[in-house]
Design goal:
Elements lengths: L21 E8 L5 E8 L7 E8 L4 E7 L6 E7 L8 E10 L8 E9 L5
Antiparallel strand pairs: 1-2, 2-5, 3-4, 3-6, 6-7
């Protein structure tokens, strides 16, 4: 008897929680420069993980934070707003933490850096 494979892509087979990792984190500013499009991909999972996304400016100040509790999706996208600045131009980092019961320490982390150009570019 042969096995029936219901997953076309072996990387999409759900894994136990100890094998869950952040596969990728990407960020890109929208044309208005005050919003950032974020994509996060994690290992396909059996148990739903938690994520925290923290957007920081070049001085390390937190610009915004998103908490995702027990996500249902391995591939996610969000819009994060840049608040309390007159001009958002500059360098930013997006830090992601994946965890289950406790955040200290997180099970996995990933970072992505990007630049928001000045208004005249």
């Amino acid at each position: 008897m042969s096995d029936i494979n219901i997953f076309d892509d072996p990387s999409k087979v759900p894994k136990p929680k100890d094998q869950i990792r952040i596969e990728s984190v990407k960020a890109a500013p929208y044309a208005d420069r005050f919003r950032v499009y974020v994509e996060v991909s994690v290992t396909a999972f059996l148990e739903r993980p938690n994520l925290i996304l923290v957007l920081r400016d070049s001085q390390g100040k937190i610009v915004n934070e998103v908490n995702i509790i027990e996500t249902m999706h391995a591939e996610m996208d969000f819009t994060i707003h840049i608040r309390n600045v007159d001009d958002p131009a500059g360098d930013y980092s997006l830090d992601a933490e994946l965890f289950y019961e406790t955040r200290n320490p997180p099970q996995d982390t990933a970072s992505y850096t990007f630049t928001i150009p000045p208004a005249d570019e």
